[in-house]
Amino acid sequence: MRRLAAKKQETLGDIDAKTALRLIGSSSDVALVLDRSGLVLDVIVQDAALAALVGAGWKGQRWADLVTVESREKIESILREAVAGAPSRWRQVNHALRGQDDLPLAYSVVRLGNDDVGGDASAASLVAFGRDLRANVQLQRRLVEAQQAMERDYWRFREAETRYRTLFQTAPEAVLIADGQTLKVLEANPAAEGLAGRS
User: Fold this and answer.
1) Which of 3, 81, 109, 131 could form a disulfide with 86 if both were Cys (CB 3.0 to 4.6 A apart)?
2) What are phi and psi of 4, to 5 degrees?
3) SS3 state of residue 185
4) What string of H, E and C letters represents the secondary structure of 8-77?
5) Pairing of strands 40-45, 30-34
6) Tens digit of each residue's pLDDT (9 = 90 or more) over 164-174
């Protein structure tokens, strides 16, 4: 049992930096290696189209400076939690892109380093695992557009019904609406009721 634990620790300890970066990159759409202050030390992107959006310009910048104003507070909160060693929940932030729509990514941050086993916590770095949310945002946008179209259709129907009711009630000619199968009268306008002797 002791030998097995030693072998396991040895295997995990044998992961070199290159392998660790590949492992980090394969577990997310975008991975940011950060220092404790939120400075981007490295950027790992698997998808070429996404890499074109993210670009190498993120490296060496503060993470909070790469997002929209509304997302900055979330970034500060994520960093505080990660530095404290608290488990990070997924949070959506929007990256500002020049001349394009914002890039929505959901991030979870993990603190790295040997500080968990008595090492120096100040030397620990962070990895932000990012998931591309563009497909979800597009789906939400289509859903909202469909809802708005349904509401517009509903209000058009209501307006048409109001016009019909007004015409039906004020028409000088007698009008009856009957069921096509039973010929039972469903509605009669005031002119028709007057002819039938009903007020």
Assistant:
1) 81
2) -65, -45
3) strand
4) HHHHHHCCCHHHHHHHHHHCCCEEEEECCCCEEEEEEECCHHHHHHHCHHHCCCEHHHHECHHHHHHHHH
5) antiparallel
6) 888 888 888 88
